[in-house]
Structures are given as structure tokens and as C-alpha cells.
Amino acid sequence: MKNRLFILCAILLLSPTAWAEIYKNVDANGHITYSNVPSKGAKKLDLEPPANTGFDSKPRTRTPTPSDFPRVDKQTQVQRDQKRRKIL
């Protein structure tokens, strides 16, 4: 089972990114249709690949807690958590 999972992950990581041609068609009523199949009157769009890979290059900074934010001591929080677990 672990071997199958490893092989699947390796295939997904090593597979090339899929690129397709995109066509834009505007009909007589002004409706816009996008497709990967060329059709009569459709114009091919030349799009640049996205620059962002989904990962932020900047580390996220935490917003500091306001000084007037109400605090709860650890024992009170533990009691609240236990009550919530009983409810669930």
C-alpha cells in the first residue's frame, strides 16, 4: 500500500504541467464563451503562464493580540475544553 502511494506521488510530481490553447468566442448576443476547441469566429488567446506557483515567497507575520483582549488562565480553559468535549 505504501509503495503504491509513493509511486502515485512520484508520478504526480514528475508529470509535466498541462498546457492547452484557449479560444474566446463572442456570439451575436454578446455572450462570451471560452473553450479549448477552436470554433468559427473564435480568437486564440495568448496567455502568459501564471507567475505565482501557489506558495507565498514572504513568510506570514502574526498579528499581535491587542493588550486589552480578555485573557483566560490555563485551568479555566482546560475546564471549558472538557465541557466542549462532553457536548461533542
What radius of gyration results from the CA coordinates? 26 Å
- Summarize the biggest pleated sheet: 3 strands, antiparallel
Low-confidence stretches: none
First and last CA, distance: 33 Å
Topology:
Blueprint (H helix, E strand, L loop, with lengths): L1 H13 L7 E5 L5 E4 L7 E3 L28 H14 L1
Antiparallel strand pairs: 1-2, 1-3
Your description of this structure?
The chain is α+β, with helices and mostly antiparallel strands and about 90 residues long. It is about 30% helix and about 15% strand. It has a three-stranded antiparallel beta sheet with strand order 2-1-3, with no helix packed on it. The mean pLDDT is about 80.
Features:
3 strands, elongated, 31% helix, alpha+beta, 88 residues
Brief synopsis:
The protein has 88 residues and is α+β, with helices and mostly antiparallel strands. The chain has helices at 2-14, 74-87, and strands at residues 22-26, 32-35, 43-45.
